[in-house]
């Protein structure tokens, strides 16, 4: 029996083909001659796993799970399985350590079909990886069929294991799918970011890297379906049932239409989709989750304070925070003099926080602030005096605060200091009757205190790299309560226990804040008492916005025989730009632009070559040299780039294409030492779009481009047009000349928002103060362009002519294209005339000066009784409202500015009854819920600068259901989800930087859109007006303004709507306007609100009236 290879637990061999007649085969079976079998000599495995494979194949006729049979002799035990072909690892290794997108997609859908069948019978594989997927034997009908083997492990392989497997959580379906995601990414890219770690803590380092790597970063060089697949599976709950057919459908766009030529047989996937969908009705592709999921693993660390509140009887309690070492004794002594003792301590940035109360039950207390972590000698001395550790804290500087008390229930204690979380020690002590009672960290070191007679009947640990919300809620449901916690910069650990004596009120609540929760503590102090509170540091839970995919360059060999390309080392002579496989239409766009118009656009075509570091499909751009990015460039060099870039963009725009990602990296020069070495080329149309007959729209959740160079309209999610390419070109030229842009260096989850805000706040004068005047003039023109405005390219080119040398032959960049475009197009179409002037002077935008504006919206209505109040203080509000109600008026809208209120009351609201609340909290949840129970609906809301809010709720509205959301940023994704459910925005407001949005069913609208901007979006509003939209709700923070425009189901008799912008409440204009008539109808105020701190189009010096 020749040995094939050695295994971890034995050897692997192929047995000879049996030659005996049929009747003798039974005798020879024990001699190792079963036909077409492989025997793995291993220790006795778990029978249930082998039985699982057999049942899956026999009961469900699942031929793609390999049957394992068992044989035993006096010496050893053997496992026998059908012989198959190569594994996916072998295929990947033999094909240049990469796989095409189609190959990976076929593997994905077939793997999902196998796992669905396995999961439906209650089995989890536990070790999904390339080595465990095998193809059928070559030259047989099954050579393209995928098989899954090895159900004996169930623990996972470090490289492909899910994060939950690393953390020791019970395996479930989500773990198989997460491992499958890593397998697919590895097969496509050839490498995973966490490969290469070694040492005893390899699993910890790999898990940490997985948590810190967002799906966007991990899949930046992969087809979009892989990123979508990974995002879905890493956000799944423990017992959540995957929507397999939805997951399979993600990859259908990557698979060729002809099943016969696919690299992997995908019959199983189709069979699973249709069979299971018909039988059980649970694999519907269009199925959607009931609730949107919060994304995890977004890769940005953050600091959080986590407070735990337990319901108790009221008691005297005092808290101190940001306490320096020198002040600690003063606070403690004063508390003890008042009959208070320390119940818990914490530390942050080498400062201390402590809670002292009268309900600890301790009789005496001592403490030590030591420069060493958990000073052993002092603790031992206090144990001798019958003191026990009741609370500990460690600072980032290595010091510690240890509090020890008499009068505890503990009978024995033990503690351990470790460089990693000491779970093995904890587990050992649990068996001895100890329970964790205190924990602390300093740097990466852990200190854990365990006590006998701690009053617990059971205890568990939740260890994670982020706040383990799911695990905590599951434990809470089983009667556990958080009793201790600590965190390093990498990991957080929570101890949850079941008390022996069930408390009268088991309520426990957690609060996460970025600072010590002093405001919240004061609010809850009347009926809640802090039980335990603590700090998390470095928890990976904040979102991240990436600047864009950086494209690495590879070198390909010069074409050899018959035009075929062969891969060579870095000495190759052909330059290539690398990125995701672009959309076919963009490559076709580049090809057509080059063939029809001879534009200097690189033809993009997939080569099928693979880069071993990134293992992605390379896109080659034929015969290009280096890109133009340097530290700084002379004025003449920048001017040459400007005129030639404008000539390239003009030709592209004239054919209806917008590039979408203009930046230095996408402008390349020709190859050195060739006639084209000074010729400029534009590459990478991967973000390009067709500009022909594209309607204006805005999707604030959509960003395309590179953050540093993107236009402000791109940041705001507006449809790309020619002006965006030109604005990006302006930033590119300024960067090349100055070497830096003012908005470089921003980081964090709101990077795109901060960069856009900075762009809006930076005037052309400020941005171009060290640049030639031509750059300032160019920027002023392009940032003032309208969406569909056709640029005057020759006028723009002429701005830079004064910076160009007189002799074209010695210019650093060839500018023939610019001159050719100017004269050819100018003669043929007469539209690039340098002397052409605009019909109307343009109003300047982005002047960088913040201002406060009142925006009033007027709708034509029949005359009615109406009253308005402004600059109303809190104390005077009730008086005005009661007087209006007595006169038959109800509130139609409210607003706030500088902590004063404005309200409109009229007789035409249609409401039958009305209530309101002026609350110090923003949109008081409990009160709103109570009024909903009484069939009141929110009709108007307003928030003030101090965080308070005014909520008006009415009966007699047309609404049938309402929902609202409070968010730290404009919640467009939530709004978009609610639109799909039939809700429409009916009210909005802000308080400082927080947004409150109310959405209602049966709101009377047939469609709705959002205009979000850093200034008053005049152009967008007028475009929406032209399409039948009318402003129905609006709000603004100090940074952004949002307007909701809707199309009413019932077309009003007079659709006139007007807006007025003033620097103060428009009382004078309202009086005049209410006294006039228009088209036989009286103009009435519909909505009033304040915009504060916006970077406006004009300096506010008076009234500015616009009409739609």
From TrEMBL:
Which residue positions does the secretion signal occupy? none
- State any single GO MF term: protein serine/threonine kinase activity
* SMART domains to which the protein is assigned, alphabetical: S_TKc
Per the database record, which ranges form the Protein kinase domain? 1-261, 434-810
The EC number(s) given in the record are 2.7.11.1
Among InterPro entries, the record links this protein to: CK1_Ser-Thr_kinase, DUF7477, Kinase-like_dom_sf, Prot_kinase_dom, Ser/Thr_kinase_AS
The record's section on Pfam families has:
DUF7477, Pkinase
Q: Does the keyword Transferase apply?
A: yes
Chain positions covered by the region annotation Disordered = 1-36, 553-584
Which principal EC class is assigned to this enzyme?
A: transferase
Source domain of life is: Eukaryota
- Entry annotated with the keyword Kinase: yes
Give the compositionally biased regions (Basic residues): 27-36, 565-574
- Name the keywords, alphabetized: Kinase, Transferase
Give the UniProt family note.
Answer: Belongs to the protein kinase superfamily. CK1 Ser/Thr protein kinase family. Casein kinase I subfamily.
Q: What is this protein called?
A: non-specific serine/threonine protein kinase
Q: Which organism is it from?
A: Gossypium australe
């Amino acid at each position: 029996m020749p040995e094939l290879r050695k295994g971890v637990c034995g050897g692997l061999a192929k047995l000879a083909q049996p030659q005996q007649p049929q009747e003798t085969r039974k005798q020879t079976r024990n001699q190792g001659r079963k036909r077409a079998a492989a025997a793995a000599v291993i220790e006795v495995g778990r029978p249930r796993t082998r039985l699982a494979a057999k049942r899956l194949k026999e009961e469900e006729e699942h031929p793609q799970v390999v049957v394992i049979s068992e044989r035993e002799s006096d010496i050893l035990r053997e496992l026998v399985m059908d012989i198959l072909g190569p594994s996916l690892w072998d295929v990947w290794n033999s094909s240049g350590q990469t796989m095409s997108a189609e190959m990976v997609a076929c593997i994905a859908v077939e793997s999902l079909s196998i796992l669905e069948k396995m999961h439906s019978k209650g089995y989890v594989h536990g070790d999904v990886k390339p080595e465990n997927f095998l193809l059928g034997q070559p030259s047989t009908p099954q050579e393209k069929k995928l098989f899954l083997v090895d159900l004996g492990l169930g623990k996972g392989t470090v490289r492909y294991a899910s994060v939950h497997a690393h953390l020791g959580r019970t395996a479930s379906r989500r773990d198989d799918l997460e491992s499958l995601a890593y397998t697919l990414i590895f097969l496509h890219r050839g490498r995973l970011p966490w490969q290469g770690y070694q040492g005893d803590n390899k699993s910890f380092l790999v898990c940490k890297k997985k948590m810190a790597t967002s799906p966007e970063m991990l899949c930046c060089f992969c087809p979009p379906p892989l990123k979508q697949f990974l995002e879905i599976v890493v956000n799944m709950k423990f017992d959540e049932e995957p929507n397999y057919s939805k997951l399979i459908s993600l990859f259908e766009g990557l698979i060729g239409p002809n099943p016969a030529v696919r690299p992997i047989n995908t019959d199983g996937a189709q069979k699973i989709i249709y069979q299971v969908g018909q039988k059980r009705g649970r694999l519907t592709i269009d199925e959607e989750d009931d609730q949107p999921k919060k994304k995890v693993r977004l890769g940005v660390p953050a600091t959080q304070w986590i407070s735990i509140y337990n319901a108790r009887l009221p008691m005297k309690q005092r808290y101190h925070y940001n306490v320096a070492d020198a002040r600690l004794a003063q606070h403690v002594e004063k508390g003890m003099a008042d009959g208070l003792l320390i119940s818990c301590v914490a530390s942050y940035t080498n400062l201390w926080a402590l809670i002292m109360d009268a309900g600890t039950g301790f009789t005496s207390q001592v403490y030590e602030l030591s420069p060493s972590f958990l000073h052993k000698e002092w603790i031992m001395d206090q144990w001798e005096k019958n003191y026990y550790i009741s609370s500990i804290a460690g600072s980032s500087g290595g010091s510690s605060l240890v509090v020890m008390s008499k009068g505890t229930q503990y009978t024995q204690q033990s503690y351990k200091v470790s460089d990693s979380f000491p779970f093995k020690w904890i587990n050992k002590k649990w068996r001895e009757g100890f329970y964790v009672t205190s924990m602390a960290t300093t740097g990466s070191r852990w200190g854990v205190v365990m006590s006998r007679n701690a009053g617990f009947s059971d205890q568990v640990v939740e260890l994670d790299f982020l706040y383990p919300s799911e695990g905590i809620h599951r434990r809470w449901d089983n009667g556990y309560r958080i009793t201790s916690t600590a965190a390093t910069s990498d990991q957080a650990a929570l101890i949850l226990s079941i008390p022996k004596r069930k408390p009268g009120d088991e309520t426990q609540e957690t609060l996460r804040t970025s600072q010590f929760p002093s405001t919240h503590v004061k609010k809850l102090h009347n009926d809640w008492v802090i039980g335990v509170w603590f700090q998390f540091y470095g928890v990976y839970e904040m979102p991240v916005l990436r600047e864009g995919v950086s494209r690495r360059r590879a070198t390909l060999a010069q074409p050899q025989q018959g035009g075929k390309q062969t891969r060579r080392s870095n000495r190759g002579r052909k330059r290539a730009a690398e990125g995701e496989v672009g959309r076919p239409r963009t490559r076709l766009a580049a090809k057509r632009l080059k063939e029809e118009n001879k534009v200097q656009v690189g033809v993009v075509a997939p080569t099928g070559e693979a880069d071993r570091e990134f293992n992605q499909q390379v896109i080659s751009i034929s015969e290009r040299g280096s890109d133009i990015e340097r530290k700084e460039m002379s004025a003449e060099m920048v001017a040459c780039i400007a005129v030639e870039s404008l000539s390239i963009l003009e030709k592209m725009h004239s054919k209806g294409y917008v590039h979408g990602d203009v930046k230095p990296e996408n402008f390349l020069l020709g190859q050195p030492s060739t006639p084209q070495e000074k010729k400029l080329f534009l590459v990478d149309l991967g973000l390009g779009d067709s500009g022909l007959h594209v309607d204006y729209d805005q999707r604030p959740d959509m960003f395309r481009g590179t953050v540093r160079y993107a236009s402000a309209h791109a940041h705001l999610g507006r449809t790309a047009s020619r002006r965006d390419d030109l604005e990006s070109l302006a930033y590119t030229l300024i960067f090349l000349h100055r070497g830096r842009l003012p908005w470089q260096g921003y980081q964090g989850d709101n990077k795109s928002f901060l960069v856009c805000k900075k762009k809006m706040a930076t005037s052309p004068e400020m941005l171009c103060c060290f640049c030639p005047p031509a750059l300032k003039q160019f920027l002023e023109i392009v940032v003032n362009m309208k969406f569909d405005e056709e640029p005057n390219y020759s006028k723009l080119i002429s701005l830079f002519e004064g910076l160009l040398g007189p002799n074209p032959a010695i210019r650093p960049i060839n500018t023939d294209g610019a001159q050719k475009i100017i004269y050819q197009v100018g003669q043929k179409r007469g539209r690039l005339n340098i002397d052409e002037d605009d019909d109307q002077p343009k109003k300047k935008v982005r002047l960088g000066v913040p201002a406060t504006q009142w925006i009033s919206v007027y709708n034509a209505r029949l005359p009615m009784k109406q009253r308005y109040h402004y600059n109303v203080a809190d104390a005077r509000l009730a008086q005005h409202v009661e007087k209006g109600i007595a006169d038959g008026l109800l509130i139609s809208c409210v607003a706030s500015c500088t902590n004063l209120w404005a309200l409109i009351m009229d007789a035409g609201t249609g409401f039958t009854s009305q209530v309101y609340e002026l609350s110090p909290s923003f949109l008081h949840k409990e009160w709103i819920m109570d009024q909903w129970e009484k069939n009141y609906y929110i009709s108007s809301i307003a928030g003030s600068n101090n965080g308070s809010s005014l909520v008006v709720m009415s009966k007699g509205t047309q609404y049938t259901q309402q929902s609202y959301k409070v968010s730290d940023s404009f919640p467009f994704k939530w709004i978009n989800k609610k639109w799909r459910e039939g809700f429409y925005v009916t009210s909005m407001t802000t308080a400082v930087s927080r947004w409150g949005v109310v959405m209602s069913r049966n709101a009377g609208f047939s469609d709705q859109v959002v205009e979000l901007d850093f200034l008053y979006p005049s152009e967008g509003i007028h475009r929406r007006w032209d399409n039948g939209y009318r402003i129905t709700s609006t709000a603004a923070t100090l940074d952004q303004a949002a307007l909701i425009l809707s199309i009413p189901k019932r077309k009003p008799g007079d659709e006139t709507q007007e807006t007025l912008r003033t620097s103060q409440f428009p009382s004078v204009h309202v009086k005049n306007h209410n006294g006039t008539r228009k088209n036989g109808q009286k103009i009435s105020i519909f909505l009033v609100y304040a915009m504060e701190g916006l970077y406006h189009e004009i300096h506010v010096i008076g009234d500015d009236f616009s009409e739609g």
